[in-house]
Amino acid sequence: ALPFTNGKRGKQFVLYDISQRSAYKNDRGNLVTNWIQISNLGAERAEGVLRTYNNLGGIIGDQAVYLEARQRVDLPAHQFGPSQVGLVEWIPTDKEIPFTLRNIQYHYDNPGNIESFASAFEQSGAYASGDGMIVPFQTSANDSAVLQISNVLGEPLNVWLNFFDTNGLAASAPTQVALPPKGSYILHLDDAIPESQGSVLLRTGSLSSLVAGVTQITRTKKRGIAAMSYTPARSGAGAVLRGSFNTYMGQRSSVWITNTTDFAQDVAFGAVPSEGAGHPAYYNFTVPSHGTRIVVVPSVEAYGVVTVLNGNRNALVSWIRRERHDF
């Protein structure tokens, strides 16, 4: 689902990845496309530059874009060839006009001669962030996770990665990554941290320097693609976190709650189905320092709102992951 948004003003960024993420040998020739969507949410004509960088930070695309009021354009990042990964930067001429920037990835189940897909998912454009970004991951025999980080600065950037399991214990040794200006880095977490659930903490020491996220892949029995999703890295935001769940048609909604701090955090968790009224019935638990608590929403054939309460601002980050029940 694509969220409603009022757009963002000024520069924003989105990652792209044209790599074949299926591990099944017969899928090697299947098409992967990345469509970069830019929408002008303003009331007047606008323009800007869409700049695409490869993983080394080299400019491989520099395109002027003109949009009428409320117009959307779709531009192919896959035009630069297969197996590319990197950063897309939208630079509007008028920094007061709101835009949405998205990357819609399609992973075909064929070489591209038929409009049929193994999976498709969306990444939303983001402002760059810096210290204390968190992103969850899951690796197992049926789950792969790919971490992508990109430096939005015009100068080199060092990024420190710390890996934690759900109990907040180190899942792997810390790693330092040196990114060139506008450069990107890919880490296959199922190779680095097999059979684990938890989070990655990213630190840079520089504000507004980084965009990052994890592409989660659910595997078929032959190691092909059953489903894919993207989770952006985020910093802690507020003491009250809310999101929507949906368990219709056999979906499972699990809420991932990660503690960004060095101290255990007390949490109150509640979910209200759409037909419910009033306040949710909360239950309480503790998330350990740098730990992650995964709560499966118990409602069957329902949708509604999940609320996560904590007494400390910016201590927690939360996501809702929706899956088919048979995954």
Q: Your description of this structure?
A:
Helix content is 1%, strand content 55%. The protein has one helix and 23 strands. It has a four-stranded antiparallel β-sheet with strand order 1-6-3-4, with no helix packed on it. Strands 5-2-7-8 form a four-stranded antiparallel β-sheet, with no helix packed on it. The chain starts with 11 loop residues before the first strand and ends with a strand.
Strand and helix layout:
Elements: E1 12-17, E2 32-40, E3 46-53, E4 59-67, E5 72-76, E6 85-92, E7 99-108, E8 117-124, E9 133-139, E10 143-151, E11 157-165, E12 170-179, E13 184-188, H1 189-192, E14 196-203, E15 210-219, E16 225-232, E17 240-246, E18 251-259, E19 265-273, E20 283-287, E21 292-296, E22 303-309, E23 316-324
Antiparallel strand pairs: 1-6, 2-5, 2-7, 3-4, 3-6, 7-8, 9-14, 10-13, 10-15, 11-12, 11-14, 15-16, 17-22, 18-21, 18-23, 19-20, 19-22
